[in-house]
Records
---
Amino acid sequence: MRSKKTAVGSIALLALLLIVPQGNLSAAPKVIDLKFATYLPGPHGTTKACEQFIADLEEQTHGQVKVQFFPGGSLAKAPSMIKAIETGIVDIGLSHISYTPGRFPVTEVCELPIGYPTGWVANIAMNDFYDKYKPKEWDSVVPLWFHANSPSILASTKPIRTMDDFKGQIIRAPGRMADVITALGGTPAPTPIVETYDAIAKGVIHGVFVGMEGVRAFKFGEVTPYVTNSWNVGPSYPFYVAMNKRKYEKLPADVKAVFDRLCGEYKEKFALVWNASDFPGEAFGKQKGVEFIELSQAEFDRWITAVEPVFDAYVKSMVDKGFKEDEVKSWIAFLKRARPSFSNSKRPCTSNPPKALTRYGNRRLPLRMSAKRSEC
């Protein structure tokens, strides 16, 4: 009787194996759930680029990776982002180092008033800087890529045509950028960017040191009737997209390969996003009646001279931390390869760039996307 039951069971099992495809019996790859956070709002260009990165990642891993996205500081605010990444509150996070002064002292060299001519150049310079020097301050996370806004302009409630006009002006400028505002005669304030509009509208501060895209992205064109083109001393904020180290190391080899490839692509994509961001910002400002101010040649040169002590102060601060002076100066020299000659106060027109601007490292400087500035 027992053998008969065994035979019937064997026949049933054989039938099942014939009916059910063998592939269905093997375990499907475990879905990897990730949380990606940015403090920037949904409409921001980099937020849209993050959404595209997520879509590409999910598609190219064939659904093995699923990403929940938290824009606008809904999961982690800008100042707490790096800690949230380290502790695993978020798996991938976007912020910039000026929100955590002193946390990334080596990388802070990137936010000195180098004089990057475009957002694209600033992006490439910062990624190249990390690739060359690999600062140990990033060892607690996995940097996926760095990026940077176009050189900062001054959006203000009163016209700033000379350094004398900075007297009594409180300008939003966190981190090392605060040193630039101080050197020019203003008073810096570390106001979070998402609170800056209200602070200006209420008269708590009088302006903001930010890339041109901020005129539109944060609606500063509604509360600052003047924009001074300060690219010669306008630093770019060093942004990062970083991942929790343990989460990255646990990725299967095939998924990690997709990550690494996509991150290489998005270094360039973010550079192009920032490079293109000037135009809608400028257009929004003109629509709101903003006056765009160009410095005279004499004033342009005066501002460059005024911020030189910012470099000296940085070098001294790093020597005090135990770095060699020659080493720190080599970082600055490396980044200064990205800037053009300061023989003319007019910002280089990158729709027809001079030869000095057509290469940074081994990369060609792209056109500033489809729009062309009227002065080109």
---
Amino acid sequence: MIFFLFAFLVIKVTSAQTVTFENFNGYFDSNAVNYFKGTPGVPGDYIYHEIFASFALRNDTSAFGDYWSGWAISRLKDSISIAYDTNDCAAFPAVLSSTYATAYQSIDSYYNRIRFDMPIMLDGVSITNSTIAYRSMQNGDFVAKKFGGVSGNDSDYFRIIFKGWENGILKPDSVLFYLADFRDPNNANDYIVKYWEYVNLQTLGVVDSIYYYLESSDNGPFGMNTPAYFCIDNLVDNPESVKDISLSSNISIFPNPFSEELTFCNKSEEIVEISVMDFEGRNLIEMNLIKNQQHKLQTSSWSQGMYFIKVKSQKGEYFKKIVK
């Protein structure tokens, strides 16, 4: 089952915008909690959408309880708890704004991505450690080691690598950020991030999604021992980097939301190229519309969810999000 939680929708970006996660505060209040990582006892996928970005959360259930991965929404802060006696959605420092997102790395990379309504260049995002990851690295726990080891000289690290995708192609550049770094020979320079740090993502270029993966110096037979959590807030785009030539007044795409059928109408005086992409960025349909042409697509077999339409002509291109 897939649940969609939309804050609001913006199709055309003309100035810098920031995903703050603040628009989900009402959802917390209605459930009398300060975090959301899925409905207890209800397995399924949840999709958060705010302004230009979408985040996926997976909640699974078993005899041992619920298990989540992907992106949770939280307004918890906890710099007091020692280890696993805190909520796994809590950020270590005081929150940058009242609400933020906590990532828990999934074995399925689908949930480790952030997807955008249109190709954009990002400016950056604020990042910090979760309380559980911070205390684990600071003190060690029943699985993970204390960073630096007994002597304090171990060259430990915990880092995030961000990569970008565009049109289903993995881009070559990456952004690396250390959540903890004990590699310097001078132990006085060792650190575990305990404040919000702004990470510049512009070097990823124009992307329609980004994904992350975590790496640690502390690994065991089943993978990374360091708890695979971190927190983000204030994801900022850089719209001046993206060509924004509107064709929307001459191209009609309806209805939205759609069900059995989707209609495209070209009222311009030129040929336009139409591409339909699914939530993963895979091309489903590519076609050309000549001037004053109307075309109907049968969509009854399409899965429910979000789709992205790319409309391109000699004058430029624009993007539109539609929902089934």
---
Amino acid sequence: MVYTLSAGSPGQIDFATYHTGANNLPWPPSIANLNSEIGLTPDNRDATVDRFWKVGTSAGATATLELNYLITELPPSPYSDPAELRAQNYNFGTNKWQPSLPGQSATSYKVNVNGINNQSDWTLANINSPLPVEWLYFHAILEKEVVSLTWATASEVNNDFFIVERSKDMLDVEGIEKVYGVGNSSSVNVYATKDLQPLANTSYYRIRQVDKNGTEEFTKWVAVYRKSGSAISVVVGPNPSSELINVSGLNSPFQLMLFDVTGKLILNHEKINASDEISIAHLPNGVYSARFISDELGLFTIKIIKQ
């Protein structure tokens, strides 16, 4: 490992690196995943070198980092080409691996990373199976008779395009808009479009993101309920959810009844404030019908998936 100062003063510098087994274990302390963006199982071990690096500085500085590894630490074919390896660092705030910084150079058996600041924990993954990045948000809001859809990415690697998908039941899905992505970016990118003809009553929306190699990733569904002749709409999400459901759009308390697929009443909250989150963490995984009763919109039903 070579740390070359470009600007500023790093203060005290601490280095550490270690070899792992072919399963990339043990992970460094506090790292929670080595997930695969393209669906390798059980994780991205077959596209990641068998080594981790850690760099710590006590002050701010900009530097170039050279990460060296052994030929025996290369991942197996088809991810074993040294020229296709890129360095990625871990963000402990989000528990996500960050996309590779631009301008890297890779040769046998080292990778050079320019413009690093305070990033600490590193590994090398094949560019055809990068460690995954994160969505910042996806929002759907009814504005008069049009649904405005906005989403943002924190960064992009080989992103080709997005498809805005709509459904009446989260089963029969149609693509209503194609939006091209930036491609490769280490900064925030915001996208927006509109559904000019939303479905009657409830529309479910999600974003399908497609990489240049055909790999797909989906946001969770967001449900938008609109009542004809009313200026009020309700947005329910995320969907599916493992813990909490958020309901926005109502201005006064409402009643929520949750039914399972057999029609059995599972939950009955007689009064929920508009700002409250609804916990479904204790429920078995499955599909539920959420029946809302409000003074503003009367009775309406939205499907919820617990997973």
---
Amino acid sequence: MRITLGVEWSQVGPRLRVRDDTSNTSQLVDLIGTTWNYRCTGVRVCPGHHATRTDGSREFVDCQAQVTKRTRCERCSTVEAVFASNLHRAHKLGRTYVDHRLAEHLDQPHRLYIAGFADGSIKVGTTAGVSGGVRLAEQAAWVASYVLLAPDGYVVRDVEDAITERLAVAQAVSAHQKRAGMLAPKPTDEVAALVASARTRVHQLIDSEPGLAPRCETLADDWYFGGIDTPPWRGLAAYPNRLDSGAHEFTVDDMCGRFASLVRDGTPDRYVADLGELTGVEIQVGEHDPDPVEVQASLF
């Protein structure tokens, strides 16, 4: 048996964290180009949590607890919730009240970005560091632009909040919106224009309020998802079966965030599925007859 614990992105690309039932430690396995044949057992296990090291970096912590209604056990849920709350309130609390481990993370340079998604939605967000696009890739962005380099995570979140409050740019886009866009993507030029327009408004806001972004540098560094207009992301239908029940067989052709472009043996159809459905699910890998896949004609 295997426990699937979620999709993780790094500089090497997307991988799935899994744990064998005979081990206490999980590992990351490749996704793109791999074929999966499995049956769900009906057992759900807490997918663990990420802990903050003393240097501010994050490490995965496995958990063996079985769960039913909730995704995580109470302990892991609390750890994740406390970290998220402290991270998003740190700029309002101030350095004096921030845990030293979180402070190590926040004290490094941060970039602020505008991300556009395949359905035309846009959001503002932040990411630690001065290079790389892992954060955008894991969020399933289609087109994006880094618009500001800040000296730390406190200043960048002040600017982020100001953009949401004054320019009405959201800080989140739902998984439903992201998948809907992959099924019927807007023209790339149209999404890029929306991102560019938001970037211009952000720069205008910063220029009009010199005290809003102290010690910051404006940027205009564009980023594009590498799969745009490639075969894996053309003519997709929604995978109609939930991945966390029944039996399945498919090959992962490509990944965008936690969403997979799937193909099945013996059919030219191509599907998009949310691998987030597999988080914490126990599966039996082997030679199983997959459940029928029936796609509604209205989806084509």
